[in-house]
Specification:
It contains 13 helices and 9 strands. It has about 300 residues and is α/β, with parallel strands linked by helices.
Length: about 300
């Protein structure tokens, strides 16, 4: 049975959804029908069964597409036998401490693609996503953006948070430990935003497929900033997204009343400076590791 020979492994809030949408257009690439199966993270996870039951739902209705079972994971790639490039994209693979070794042990020849975004911008974008969902408030961002949650996966602990996900040097070092550089392709978020066709060509060359294919890059993914008028209502919507989609389809005017577009907030200058100072050492080490000029990130 087929398994992926390439994985888009992160980072979160760094354009991976748009990148994945672009890859899916290439006729020589087979993409997992679930964008983020997150298979290589799960290891005797006590919370697993709670999330697994959603896999019996149609793909469009799954809220937690975590594919723990190896057989189910392999079935994601059924029909891929004639494709030279077979892939999946799970953005938390980069930050999860044990995934690099698991991939080396199970898929030693897999090619890995990473997209890295200025860590302070990534953290702010991540925080804004939670503001939209009613989980956070911009009025408490100075305190909340530093919060860290530790979650137990079997016998291993993993620290979550807006700031920890941006420590790329620490995260990529694990991959350089287990994989040769020629099996890794690292882009910056700016690379993709400024010239997606160039990124597509470089990706195709990296995967050994036709580099002359030009995808449609006009459509945008996850760019609008929408938020409900009341956070408590938004929490209900988020927990009942299937219901909301049905309401929106049948009663579009009602949907507009519940969720409206707003001007996207900007990162406060003082917090921006504090975050830059926090990430500075990691970014300096990262620049050497990936041989890229990251001076703009340090501004």
């Amino acid at each position: 049975m087929s398994q992926p020979n390439f994985i888009v492994a992160g980072a979160q809030k760094a354009g991976t959804s748009a990148f994945w949408k672009m890859l899916k257009q290439h006729p020589q690439i087979f993409c997992s029908p679930i964008k983020e199966p997150t298979h290589w993270i799960v290891r005797d996870w006590p919370e697993g069964p709670k999330y697994m039951k959603n896999l019996n739902l149609p793909e469009s209705e799954r809220r937690f597409p975590i594919v723990e079972d190896p057989d189910k994971y392999e079935r994601l790639f059924e029909g891929s036998e004639n494709y030279p490039a077979i892939g999946e994209a799970s953005i938390t693979y980069l930050s999860c401490p044990w995934v690099a070794q698991r991939l080396r042990d199970n898929l030693p020849t897999v090619k890995l693609i990473f997209i890295l975004r200025n860590p302070k911008e990534r953290a702010f974008s991540h925080y804004l996503m939670h503001v939209q969902k009613g989980i956070r408030s911009l009025t408490t961002i100075d305190k909340d953006i530093w919060e860290i949650e530790s979650r137990l996966f079997g016998s291993q602990s993993w620290e979550f948070g807006y700031v920890p996900f941006g420590l790329y040097y620490e995260q990529l070092t694990r991959y350089f430990k287990y994989f040769p550089p020629e099996q890794m392709k690292i882009f910056l978020y700016e690379d993709f935003c400024q010239d997606p066709l160039k990124v597509m060509k470089e990706t195709a060359l990296f995967l050994g497929i036709d580099p002359n294919f030009e995808p449609n890059t006009n459509s945008k993914v996850n760019v609008s900033y929408r938020i409900s008028k009341k956070n408590i209502l938004h929490k209900f919507i988020d927990n009942n997204s299937i219901l909301f989609k049905k309401i929106a389809k049948k009663y579009p005017k009602v949907a507009k009343m519940i969720e409206i577009k707003q001007e996207k907030p900007k990162l406060d200058d003082n917090l921006s400076k504090t975050l830059t100072e926090y990430f500075a050492h990691d970014m300096t080490q990262l620049a050497t590791l990936i041989n890229r000029d990251l001076t703009a990130w340090l501004q």
